[in-house]
Amino acid sequence: MVQPLDPKRIPKFVNQLVIPPVYMPTILRQPISGEVIGHAYKIEASEFQQQILPPGFGTTKVFGYSGMIQDPYTGRAVYYKSAPGSTFEAIRGIPVHVQWINNITGPHFLPVDPTLDWANPNSMSVPLPPFPSFPPGFPLAQQPVPIVPHLHGGEHPSYFDGYPDAWFTADGRTGMAFITNTYTFPNVQQPTALWYHDHTMGMTRLNNYAGLTGFYLLRDMNDPIVPFLPSRENEIPLNIQDRSFNTDGSLFYDHMGANPSIHPYVVPEFLETR
């Protein structure tokens, strides 16, 4: 039987610190002058197993992002998936166009609570107690899995902001605020370190915990402070996530809510991120 893993059993400072790879864009150019006018990406969200704990422990089921990166060892373009996802390297003044694709075709492996105001792609009625335990929970709430990416701190039109009700599923269902799954980020704001993450109504806590996050670094080589900053080989982006695990390597999530007679699966340790 799977049991929560005592964190004291996890050896510390064993894994090499991971620096996420960088997505490779398709360069868009002005036809006559050849001037770069944009960077285009196709990024997929999917479910897979990943080694997060040190060797000797089992792999962890995650939701992650994938796309083309440049292999740091061979220099070749390769398809790569990870949780957290790879990093966007954006340049101030050059728009980024991202086509987000939902390839999560199975049920959610964390308990979706349909007593909340949530995406609800199957238009479920709000259930009344007594509530079933998880698993199985509510099958109509577990599948399909809706997602909607959000660039946290980005300055762009609202329809590219990943509004919580602009979600979409792998089988084509969409939320009431959905307009498009291809976003344009103009990158006219000051250079900064941003992050992207899932933003789905009533499920942000689950999809982020499952792994749908990543970095978005906006650079400006004309910024006068650049010479005083560490060079890229000395940059270490840190994505700090508070997670607990089970003895088989899977993510631990308390299946009993803090107030189970009202919201059966919501616990205060897992709050919505906005």
What would the keywords be for this entry?
274 residues, mainly beta, Immunoglobulin-like, six-stranded mixed β-sheet, four-stranded mixed β-sheet, 10 strands, 25% strand
Helix-strand layout with pairing:
Elements: E1 26-29, E2 36-50, E3 60-70, E4 77-82, E5 88-91, E6 96-102, H1 139-142, E7 149-152, E8 182-185, E9 192-198, H2 204-210, E10 213-219
Parallel strand pairs: 2-6, 5-10
Antiparallel strand pairs: 1-2, 2-3, 3-4, 6-8, 7-9, 9-10
Mind summarizing the main beta sheet? 6 strands, mixed
Mean pLDDT: 93
Which CATH-level-2 architecture?
A: Sandwich
Q: What coarse outline follows from CA principal-axis ratios?
A: globular
- How many beta-strand elements? 10
Distance between the termini: 35 Å
Radius of gyration: 20 Å
Helix content: under 10%
Number of H- or I-type helical stretches: 2
| H/E series | EEEEEEHEEEHE
Low-pLDDT segments, ≥5 res: none
Total of domains: 1
Q: Structural class, from helix and strand content?
A: mainly beta
Q: Any overview of this molecule?
A:
- It is a single chain.
- With 274 residues, the chain is mainly beta.
- It has a single domain, classed as Immunoglobulin-like (Sandwich).
- It is 4% helix and 25% strand.
- It contains two helices and ten strands; from the N terminus they run E-E-E-E-E-E-H-E-E-E-H-E.
- It has helices at 139-142, 204-210, and strands spanning 26-29, 36-50, 60-70, 77-82, 88-91, 96-102, 149-152, 182-185, 192-198, 213-219.
- The strands form two sheets. Strands 1, 2, 3, 4, 6 and 8 form a six-stranded mixed beta sheet that branches. A four-stranded mixed beta sheet has the order 5-10-9-7.
- The radius of gyration is 20 Å and the shape is globular.
- The chain starts with 25 loop residues before the first strand and ends in a 55-residue tail after the last strand.
- The mean pLDDT is 93.
